[in-house]
Amino acid sequence: MADTTREIERKYESGDSGLPDLTGVPGVASLVDQGVVHLDATYYDTADHRLAAASLTLRRRTGGSDAGWHLKFPVAPGVRDEIRAPLSDTVPEDLARLVRSRVRGAALSPVVRLRSDRDVRHLLDATGRLLAEISVDTVHAERLTGDGTAQWTEIEVELADDGDPAFLDKVDKRLRKAGLRPSKAPSKLARALAETAPPTHTPEAAPAPAAAPAAAPKRKHRSRPVGKPVTAGDHVLAYVRAQRDALVELDPAVRQDVPDSVHRMRVATRRLRSTFRSFRSVLDRKTTDPVGVDLKWLAGELGLDRDQEVLAGRLITALDDLPDTLVHGPVRDRLTTWSETGHRGAHGKVTGVLDSHRYLTLLDTLDALLADPPLRKKAAAGPDKVLAKAVSKDLDKLSGLVTRALDLPPGHERDLALHEARKKTKRTRYAAEAATPALDDPAKDLVKSMKSLQGLLGDHQDSIMARKTLRELAAVAHAAGESDFTYGVLYGREERRAEITENALPETWKPIRKSAAF
After folding, report:
1. pLDDT (tens digit, 9 = 90+) per residue, 140-168?
2. Please, where are the H alpha helices in 197-257?
3. Across-strand partners of 44?
4. H helices of 81-202, where?
5. What are the residues whose beta carbons fall under 8 Å from the beta carbon of 128, sequence distance 6 or more?
6. Cβ neighbours of residue 497 closer than 8 Å, sequence gap 6 or more
7. How many CA atoms lie within 13 A of 5 on its CB side?
8. What is the per-residue pLDDT across 319-373, written as a single tens digit (0 to 9) for each?
9. Cα separations in angstroms, 323 against 34, 332, 337, 418, 463
10. DSSP conformational letter for 134
11. What are the DSSP E strand ranges found in 47-86?
């Protein structure tokens, strides 16, 4: 099983003078020499360096106290999460899965070898507590896919576990005063790749490009290079690109069962699907509709885990709010067992989905769509009218759904209508989000209104699902000879909560529709 640690460090260019005197750093009582450690690390990546492009590093290292496999994910400048696995001859499967959304079907192979002589010292406070580890690293880099080599010396300061990051500012001030400057490269691997790269040569006369095959599709409306959006197509593709990136970046967190990661990944999936549907005047639906089918599938698979998580939190909170006199039988134990069992089953299925061919092909398809987008004629137009019209169309459809729901009497048909309005609320919100950079305040205001309405309708739908679950749990409890009284109390409270939500809907909706500027 892989272990995860948070690494907070800073790197500095080292001159010939070596490590400066650090006894004047506030809080440092002593500097203890730990000797020299010899480290030998081989870094793995794809042939086109996909991990390095995402600032990820995967290495097999011997020497030191943490020999083994290390996978590092960037969190913030100078902050990375390091996931460790024991030494083995091949990349551990636990780590390979965590980079699968980046690697897809490409092979992971050795690309760089770094051998370092690390001269280590510990910075201790007056009680002998470790504040940070500082080292002078003499690095020898060898590119394993070519003949390039490089050598340099750097100083690395790593904060102790549970240390105060502000302490690194104090060390930084002292090192800068001594003439050191932060390293220009974010990691040793990044520097090694840059300094061992083969030289590039500009040919005197580049050959003419080969003609495209006769059957190759030709699209007249290409997207602009990634940068500041200008056209309607630019804005829509920027939003699509952000959601594609979110899927790829959240994949490892979902696999590691990080709280809220499934929800965020599901939202990115829904945003993508909604964007393809809302902006059909910009993106050709003949290309995007099949992608939307796979996105709907993925959202559904992710929903198994997310819905379980939401329901469990809602029911346990409701139980906490009940007086002890209304809690009869082992209700809490049954709820906890139901929650944990459901989560384990759902999470196991989700991780299987993330390893599936269909999911990985979906990621490839999104990449291809962004590389060669199926832009329609209106994509080349200015964003104001095109995007505003699309958002307005979604808002009009939502208005019709809300009006229909409010005209229905309370009951199953109204519940279904409100659920449809909830889904359309999300779509309108996501369309407004995509349009916000172009339309500014009107779109921002609509996003805010849609979030409010979505919260109200979401609470109503959650109440419906909670009542369904309570009926099922009550039946199981009754069959086991337990009291089902408390489940009935919780059911009644959920009914009342849904009634309050429905009563609040007209007053919530009226100002939204009246003030909408589309």
Report:
1. 999 999 889 999 999 999 999 989 999 99
2. 232-255
3. 58, 110
4. 93-98, 100-103, 166-177, 188-195
5. 30
6. 459, 463
7. 13
8. 999 999 999 999 999 999 988 888 888 888 899 999 999 999 999 999 999 999 9
9. 59, 13, 22, 32, 20
10. E
11. 57-62, 68-76, 79-85
**CA–CA dist 219, 287 (Å, integer):** 12
Q: Are 249 and 295 in contact (CB under 8 A)?
A: no
Q: State which amino acid sits at residue 501.
A: T
Strands 3-13 and 57-62: unpaired
DSSP state letter for 377:
G
Q: What is the CA radius of gyration of the chain?
A: 28
Q: What are phi and psi of 82, to 5 degrees?
A: -110, 125
Residue 311: count of CB within 10 angstroms of its CB: 20
Structural tokens at position 92:
């551990």
Beta strand pairing call for 130-143 and 109-124: antiparallel
Alpha-carbon distances, residue 20 vs 13, 158, 340 (angstroms):
12, 16, 54
Q: Which two tokens stand for residue 46?
A: 């794809």
Extract the runs of DSSP E, i.e. beta strands, from 417-459. Answer: none
Q: What is the distance of C-alpha 83 from the center of its chain?
A: 17
Other CB atoms within 10 Å distance of the CB of residue 113: 18
Determine the Cα–Cα distance for residues 440 and 436; give it in Å rounded to an integer: 5
Residues 6+ apart with CB under 8 A from 256: 4, 98
pTM for the model:
0.87
Task: Summarize the chain as % helix, strand, coil (round to 5).
Answer: 55, 20, 30
Measured CA to CA, the distance from residue 297 to residue 234 in angstroms comes to 27
CB 39 within 8 A of CB 184: no
**Residue 500 token pair:** 């309050």
